[in-house]
């Protein structure tokens, strides 16, 4: 099955990288914003009977969603047999239960909406907590790749004698996997959340921490408050300034400044969301997974 790669605005580097690595053509996509806020999407015709791949990471997803759905529908109308989405960051996975009466379970709503529009979706380490799989989040045809090997490679190359620290229980899976890959001790902090920006962090006692540099590792840095509080606790223990590493750098306003003020030595994320700290590349892993999706359709994608 032939394939072409399209970029939603802001995702050009991702689409270019995927197309180059896979040997697939890049095709044009334009989004025009009218003064009233509505969008006009224009796409180059896809390969007849082939596959169109849209590249669009889904941080701050609300303004991206309507153009994305319009592009997918238009590509089908113009002859694409399949339309897929590469979204390294998948938003709206946080709200995976109804915590208070009347709340929307956003993860399933968002997942089902994307599943209706796309034949498959490829993402990186979505924030699955109560959902064990993407299928439970409404995405039975969703595929995911893990960033731990890329994170471990960066830590191995840049941090001598690391101590890998997960700032809360939700980060434990990433912290333990990376620690195993770099042969380092691991510590998982306890967290009591009192509000969106108010947390209390406690650390276990450690006997093998001397002479090690803490590497705080989490899947998402958004407000930065959990990681910043963990930095303060580590510094109070007399450890060197920590290196903060995350899969996805969402970075709400002021988050970087908060981490630096707390005493972080460095802040590094993958390039799942383009921003200044995105120094760990995921292009090779995404392209490899994308090539595998192509072969599942029948003939290799070309």
From TrEMBL:
Q: Which residues form the Phosphoribosyltransferase domain?
A: 150-269
* UniProt cross-references to InterPro entries, sorted A to Z: Pribosyltran_N, PRTase-like, PRTase_dom, Rib-P_diPkinase
**SMART domains per the UniProt record, alphabetical:** Pribosyltran_N
Give the superkingdom in one word. Bacteria
Q: Which family does it belong to?
A: Belongs to the ribose-phosphate pyrophosphokinase family.
What are the alphabetically sorted keywords of the record? Answer: Kinase, Nucleotide biosynthesis, Transferase
Q: Which GO terms describe its molecular function?
A: kinase activity; magnesium ion binding; ribose phosphate diphosphokinase activity
Question: Is S-adenosyl-L-methionine found in the keyword set?
Answer: no
Q: Which SUPFAM superfamilies does the record associate with it?
A: PRTase-like
Residues covered by the Ribose-phosphate pyrophosphokinase N-terminal domain:
6-117
- Extract the CDD domains matched here: PRTases_typeI
Its lineage opens with:
Bacteria, Pseudomonadati, Pseudomonadota, Gammaproteobacteria, Lysobacterales
Q: Name one GO biological process term.
A: 5-phosphoribose 1-diphosphate biosynthetic process
Task: Quote the cellular component terms of the Gene Ontology held in the record.
Answer: cytoplasm; ribose phosphate diphosphokinase complex
Native organism is Fulvimonas soli
Please give the name of this protein.
Ribose-phosphate pyrophosphokinase
């Amino acid at each position: 099955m032939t394939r072409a790669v399209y970029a939603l605005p802001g995702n050009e580097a991702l689409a270019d990288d995927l197309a180059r690595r896979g040997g697939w053509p890049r095709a044009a996509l334009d989004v025009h914003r009218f003064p009233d806020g509505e969008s006009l999407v224009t796409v180059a015709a896809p390969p007849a009977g082939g596959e169109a791949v849209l590249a669009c990471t889904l941080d701050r997803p609300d303004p991206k969603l309507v153009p994305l759905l319009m592009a997918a529908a238009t590509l089908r109308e113009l002859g694409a047999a399949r339309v897929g989405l590469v979204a390294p960051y998948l938003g709206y996975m946080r709200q995976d239960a109804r915590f208070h009466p009347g709340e929307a379970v956003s993860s399933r709503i968002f997942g089902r909406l994307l599943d209706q529009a796309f034949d498959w979706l490829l993402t990186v380490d979505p924030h699955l907590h109560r959902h064990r799989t993407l299928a439970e989040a409404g995405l039975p045809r969703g595929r995911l790749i893990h960033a731990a090997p890329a994170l471990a490679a960066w830590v191995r190359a840049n941090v001598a004698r690391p101590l890998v620290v997960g700032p809360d229980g939700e980060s434990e899976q990433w912290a333990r996997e990376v620690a195993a890959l770099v042969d380092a001790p691991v510590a998982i902090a306890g967290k009591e959340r009192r509000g969106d920006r108010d947390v209390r962090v406690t650390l276990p006692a450690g006997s093998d921490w001397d002479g090690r540099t803490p590497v705080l590792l989490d899947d998402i840095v958004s407000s930065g408050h959990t990681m910043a509080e963990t930095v303060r606790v580590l510094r109070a223990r007399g450890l060197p300034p920590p290196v903060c590493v995350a899969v996805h750098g969402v970075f709400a306003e002021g988050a970087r400044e908060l981490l630096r003020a707390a005493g972080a030595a460095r802040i590094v994320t993958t390039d799942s969301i383009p921003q200044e700290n995105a120094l760990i590349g995921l292009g090779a892993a995404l392209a490899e997974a994308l090539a595998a999706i192509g072969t599942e359709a029948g003939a290799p994608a070309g």
